[in-house]
Design brief:
The protein is an alpha/beta fold. The protein contains 13 helices and 14 strands. The radius of gyration is 21 Å and the shape is globular.
């Protein structure tokens, strides 16, 4: 089919042409005396994105899931108690990993469409008089439901209670798209990946660990090898890796970090907020539909999950968009399958690109019998973006 395919899943996101060109490099010796220049430049650039001066970025050849596992196995001991809230497919998967790895997992069940329940975290931590909870896990941006949570508020609760647990945050679909502050929020381990706000192909797990987390890794007896923080830090300090890194991905990351610095991280966050408001206007004001996020306090600026009307199969809307209009929309996951489709609005994109996603989704819905007025979503988004 002629023309460009439109990719609007919430990851992988569009890779800028500059990054693709930067990745087209010949292989080189990753043990050479000049290779550390690339490594150290990338790690320094990541510190700016994490907004940290005191923590240590680490790059694993994995997805964000590998960084989840690294966070748990490096800092905890088998049987340790962890506190986590479950309000979407990805927070569910992290909680499930805790159970499967043998941790004593206390799960706060939350309605899908809401975010991390600060008051319930407070209650659970208040009851933990003997500090048996060793780690508090929070998903900053739940990609499955389009819900963002208040990490700063969780840290304030921990500080008020003087609770010593580690604070671990999943920022896979928020880093570089939503405000994230490693130092100011007192985050001990942040987990992310290359294929979303960092505008790269999938395959690079990106994490950042505090000095407190590093100290915990020195006393943890949980078996690990490939994902050992200390191996990474020892080699990274000299500009090398304990494995053969993906050289094209490192050059691509260096270029994406240059793009982020040129636009300015604050400007990027403002752009994501502006674009998200246009999408939400298309959904709510134009199409007269609702978001999975149940209240404005939960709205995500990187992904929107749109509920289709009763009797409509979102799977068919997604298939129609793909087959007829060359538009990839995100599917509803787990209990949301068939009930929502998702528009990813993060990474390298602008208003006109999003117009294509809104128009394509609108046509696909109309084709599948959704009572939506032609042009209503586009018009609503346009009013926001021109105001």
């Amino acid at each position: 089919m002629a023309g460009q395919h439109f990719l609007f899943v919430p990851g992988p996101t569009n890779v800028p042409a500059r990054v693709l060109r930067a990745m087209a490099v010949p292989m080189e010796d990753h043990r050479s005396p000049t290779f550390p220049q690339l490594t150290l430049e990338v790690l320094a650039g990541l510190k700016k994105v994490f907004k940290t001066q005191h923590s240590y970025p680490i790059i694993f050849p994995s997805s964000g899931t590998g960084c989840w596992e690294a966070a748990l196995t490096n800092t905890l001991n088998q049987g340790d108690k962890v506190l986590v809230s479950r309000f979407g497919q990805f927070s569910h998967l992290w909680a499930d990993m805790c159970v499967r790895l043998g941790f004593n997992t206390h799960i706060l069940e939350v309605e899908w469409g809401e975010g991390a329940p600060v008051d319930r975290y407070r209650a659970a931590l208040s009851e933990d008089k003997h500090h048996e909870i060793k780690a508090v896990l929070v998903c900053h941006n739940e990609t499955a439901t389009g819900v963002a949570s208040d990490i700063k508020a969780i840290r304030q609760v921990m500080d008020e209670l003087n609770h010593p647990a580690l604070l671990m945050v999943d920022a896979v679909s928020s880093l570089g798209s939503l405000d994230f502050q490693m130092d100011a929020w007192g985050v001990d381990v942040c987990v992310s990946g290359s294929q979303k706000g960092l505008m790269l192909p999938a395959g690079m797990g990106v994490t950042c660990v505090s000095q407190k987390a590093i100290e915990a890794s020195k006393t943890s007896t949980y078996p690990r090898c490939y994902f050992d923080y200390q191996d990474m830090l020892n080699n990274n300090a000299k500009g090398y890796f304990p494995y053969t890194p993906s050289i094209p991905m490192l050059y691509g990351l260096r270029e994406s970090l240059k793009i982020i610095e040129e636009e300015g991280l604050d400007n990027i966050l403002a752009r994501h907020e502006r674009l998200a408001k246009g999408v939400r206007a298309a959904v709510i004001e134009g199409w007269k539909l609702s978001l999975c996020a149940s209240a404005p306090q939960w709205y995500s600026n990187s992904v929107s999950a749109i509920r289709v009307p009763e009797g409509v199969d979102a799977v068919k809307v997604i298939a129609r968009a793909y087959q007829r209009y060359q538009l990839s929309l995100g599917a509803g996951l787990a209990r949301l399958s068939g009930k929502v489709f998702r528009i990813g609005h993060l990474g390298d994109l602008n208003e006109l690109m999003l117009m294509g996603a809104i128009a394509g989704a609108e046509m696909a819905m109309i084709d599948e019998g959704v009572k939506v007025e032609h042009g209503s979503g586009v018009a609503a988004a346009m009013k926001v973006w021109q105001s």
